[in-house]
Amino acid sequence: MHRLLWFFLLIPFYTNAQFYTIGTARPMDGGCIMLTPDQPYAEGIAYSTSYLDLNYNFEIEFDIYLGEKNDYGADGIVFVIHDDPRQFDAFGTYGECLGYGRWSPEAVYSAHISPSIAVEFDTYQNNLQNDPESDHVAFLTNGVSRHENYWNGENPAYDLEDGHLHTFMFKWSITDKSISVFLDNILVYQGGHDLINDIFEGSNQVIWGFTASTGRKYNLQYFCLKRLAYLKEGQENTTKSE
Ligand SMILES: [Ca+2]
Ligand SMILES: [Ca+2]
To answer: Which of 60, 131, 147, 236 has the most CB atoms less than 10 A away?
Structure first.
């Protein structure tokens, strides 16, 4: 019942969010941000210059583009929320780690973004990361690319490199301490997490953005921010101060 009392609170920067870019990432015409060009061995990262506040419930919605080459495409993109000590200069390992993670969970020498949570949209099978043959979505933490679970719609031919935009929504509820992720309006991940205490060591101000990489195989990859809305339970017309 109480969920019916949620109201949307749009914060001012959502239509023209500014992004800090690293590597191959560049603004595109139309407000989207290219992460990687259609070239091998690229790594691009874009972070919003405004911090996220995990003390509020919020929804972030994007269009994402993973390219148009299936057999010869790679590697995918990652939506990341982090409090890495390098802040806006944080990056992970290229190629199969998508600019976010590390070669293996034990590979602490391999660049990775931590503390963090992330959602990867992976378009290339890498056995070291336990990837299925199909493209897939997986929830990751603390710069570890390897995952035991993933979503591919139980479709062994699931493909995101189809030349089309895909809608992606990330929802955080501080009320329930839960994360919900939707891809093309399908719930692809849901999990309970006490992000502030268990991941971010008490910090509620965190950086968010996307990382991406290519390797021997490659694709044009980009994202377009559509909406960032803070939601306040049971209170109307409450504006979050910047
Ligand atoms: Ca992969
Ligand atoms: Ca594919």
So the answer is: 131
